[in-house]
Prior knowledge:
This protein is of the alpha/beta class. Helices cover about 45% and strands about 15% of the residues. The chain has an 8-stranded parallel barrel with strand order 2-3-4-5-6-9-10-11, surrounded by 7 helices. Helix 3 links the parallel strand 3 (about 40-45) and strand 4. Bound molecules: magnesium ion (MG).
Amino acid sequence: MEAIHITDVAPRDGLQNQPVHLGANDKLRLVQLLAAAGVRSVEATSFVSPKAVPQMADAAELLPLVHAALPELRCSVLVPNLKGLERAHAAGAAEIAVVLSATETMNQRNINMGLEQATEISERTLAAAQALGLRTRAYVAVAFDCPFEGETPLAEVLRLAQRMQAAGAGEIVIADTIGSASPGMVKERMRVLAEAIAPERLAIHLHDTRGMAVANAWAALEAGIRRFDASVGGTGRERAAAGNLATEDLVLMAERSGFATGISLDGLLEAIDFAQERLQRPLGGRAIAWLRRQREKTNSSNNTSPETATT
Length: 311
Ligand code: MG
């Protein structure tokens, strides 16, 4: 079976807007459950201003805990600029990610600077990270639609992705930030991008806002994309089923379609149970009810008649 690579972004993207703040030990436990499920790559935290994102204020405490507990796990951390990179490096980061929005207005509204200036900051941060020997990822955000400017021109997404490639980004992550992409749009855009950027350096980050994240992931697979972001339980900014593409949905779809993920669905359920108990809210993507029923069936058949559990 052909393998796909999944980066679970729940510890950062999933937790950063939650009303309930998890402590570093709970975050570490979540990462440990993901690793136990077979996840090999996570986005662990972000080194942004604690005033802007108080949920990530413990980044410098958490990262060394994760590295010590799981030395084999790939841990990327988000950094907004050189100052964030400095803090991440001091905390022992081995991999960083920068975020570049693909439209002028999104940059103005989000970080109060223009697109060109934001692009240069991303390029400088990537260069400095490489000089420190770190692995790098670069997000191209609002790569399908922008909440302020409407559809983002594909030529612009391509131009910025190529600039991130030229700046040496190890992985370029095309993000459907507002969850508005359709499978047709994903297939077209990712095909064009895959002609310019080697598939092993190209990834996609999807949201389930309109219920199309799994269909969009399939469209990306058809376009040759093999690297995905996903968040266990669909954990993200909005209500459970409308946040990030749920890792369990992606794993189920990919495995059923002949792709190997190396990730156990039962293991993911353990992580979801833990996260929803700590966050005090229901989590889980589209398949969560079915996955739970399957687990109950397996458990009850194991308990009552172990002789027939293999049927
Ligand atoms: Mg997201």
